[in-house]
């Protein structure tokens, strides 16, 4: 005869075994034994093919289905939209095997091109490079605003001022602001020898540098854009907004917060937007583009790369859209092309001044703190001017015109 206590023991043992059996079965079903990878990650990874496979799938999809264009756009934007984060969650490019594309050399139009365009085209197919300095932990937890700044190895004074002024990491009303600098490697041997170690030390102190193994050249700024987008899609699941800009701009984080509180748009990309900009055909211009590289009369609408704001979900869509396009040597125009693929229009806002002010260097506005106080981004300030303006704007300045712009 079993006593009540025996029955209770038996009951506990059976329940325990049943529970263990269920757990074991679940684990075996998910094929998760022996991997040592946290459960959640592995499961999410299975839902998604790897990045490169996905890119291939998508390319085929795009080429076959130009006339069902709208469904393929949905495939990019919606179906894969939310699940991407939690893929492999590591930068999956470990080596570079980037050799010049031999196909161009026998094309007549190519031979006549300027040297920098030749170099660009010969290596255009090399899409991703390994990371030299990475911070996978940067986006852990919720981040409201991620500030990412294009910089180069020698501009440490600019980075320093940004860290001390508008780019400092902080929490505003419980909303976290994080900062990152995006760099390639130096093209100059001397610089490489002297500055790389300093950069690594700088990163050791501040932990805010991402560096990739490609040359930091003007035409490679597009690589910086695509590498950041891929990095963001890999590591950043819970970032609400991104401010992306140059390392010589004045930015008001306060005005960014104010702007974002008053907007609820999805697919938000706001900045100094150019509509119907014409490709520049004068060879001496920095932005010259030969007909052979772009033969349409206008670029799609795009936001000046000096500083713009976008939401995190859109950044992930842009990452996928970028993989369907050939690289274009001007980074902000390239991002406009990605927006065009997604059929999303950027928004123009007057508080973003990334073009134009340079021309009117003598303008009174350049020295007017109330003007800066009312702006979100103003382009082209040397570190010392930036610091001065920052101090003025953050003093007990009394202005009356802000309401007009925001
Ligand atoms: C899809 O595109 C085709 C042609 O480009 C158009 O006729 C059709 O109305 C579009 N469908 C939707 C749902 O937008
Ligand atoms: C690099 O690519 C070339 C051509 O695609 C190939 O012949 C070579 O073996 C590759 N080298 C390495 C180290 O992978
Ligand atoms: C971009 O970087 C890659 C890798 O360092 C290099 O091979 C290529 O020449 C660069 N392109 C331009 C246009 O500078
Ligand atoms: C423009 O370029 C595209 C792709 O490079 C090409 O297919 C097309 O024929 C070109 N059009 C003209 C008018 O040159």
From TrEMBL:
Membrane topology designation: Single-pass type II membrane protein
Lineage top rank: taxon: Eukaryota
Family: Belongs to the glycosyltransferase 31 family.
EC number: 2.4.1.-
GO molecular function: hexosyltransferase activity; UDP-glycosyltransferase activity
Species of origin: Conger conger
Places the protein is found: Golgi apparatus membrane
Statement: the UniProt record of this protein carries the keyword tRNA-binding: no
Chief place of localization: Golgi
UniProt name for this protein: Hexosyltransferase
Cited InterPro entries: Glyco_trans_31 (IPR002659)
């Amino acid at each position: 005869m079993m006593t009540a206590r025996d029955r209770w023991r038996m009951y506990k043992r059976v329940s325990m075994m049943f529970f263990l059996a269920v757990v074991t079965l679940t684990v075996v079903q998910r094929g998760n034994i022996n991997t040592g990878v946290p459960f959640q990650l592995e499961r999410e990874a299975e839902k998604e093919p790897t990045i490169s496979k996905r890119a291939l799938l998508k390319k085929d999809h795009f080429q076959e289905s130009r006339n069902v264009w709208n469904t393929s756009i949905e495939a990019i934007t919606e179906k894969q939209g939310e699940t991407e984060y939690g893929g492999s969650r590591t930068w999956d490019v470990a080596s570079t095997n980037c050799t010049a594309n031999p196909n161009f050399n026998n094309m007549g139009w190519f031979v006549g091109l300027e040297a920098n365009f030749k170099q660009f085209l010969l290596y255009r197919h090399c899409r991703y490079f390994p990371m030299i300095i990475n911070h996978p932990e940067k986006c852990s937890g919720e981040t409201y605003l991620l500030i990412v700044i294009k910089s180069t190895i020698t501009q440490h004074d600019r980075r320093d001022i940004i860290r001390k002024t508008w780019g400092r990491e902080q929490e505003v009303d419980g909303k976290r602001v994080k900062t990152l600098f995006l760099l390639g490697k130096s093209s100059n041997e001397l610089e490489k020898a002297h500055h790389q170690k300093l950069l690594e030390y700088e990163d050791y102190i501040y932990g805010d540098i991402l560096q990739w193994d490609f040359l930091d050249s003007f035409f490679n700024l597009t690589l910086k854009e695509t590498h950041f987008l891929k990095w963001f899609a890999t590591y950043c699941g819970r970032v609400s907004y991104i401010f992306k800009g140059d390392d010589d701009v004045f930015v008001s984080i306060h005005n960014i917060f104010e702007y974002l509180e008053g907007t609820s748009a999805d697919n938000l990309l706001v900045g100094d937007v150019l509509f119907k900009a014409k490709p520049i055909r004068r060879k001496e211009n920095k932005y010259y583009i030969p007909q052979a590289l772009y033969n349409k009369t206008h670029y799609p609408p795009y936001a000046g790369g000096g500083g713009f704001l976008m939401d995190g979900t859109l950044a992930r869509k842009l990452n996928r859209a970028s993989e369907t396009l050939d690289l274009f040597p001007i980074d902000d125009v390239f991002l406009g092309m990605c927006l065009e693929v997604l059929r999303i229009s950027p928004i123009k806002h007057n508080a973003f001044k990334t073009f134009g002010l340079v021309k009117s260097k003598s303008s009174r506005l350049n020295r007017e703190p109330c003007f800066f106080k009312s702006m979100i981004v103003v382009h082209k300030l040397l570190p010392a001017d930036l610091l001065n303006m920052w101090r003025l704007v953050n003093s007990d300045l009394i202005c009356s015109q802000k309401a007009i712009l925001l």
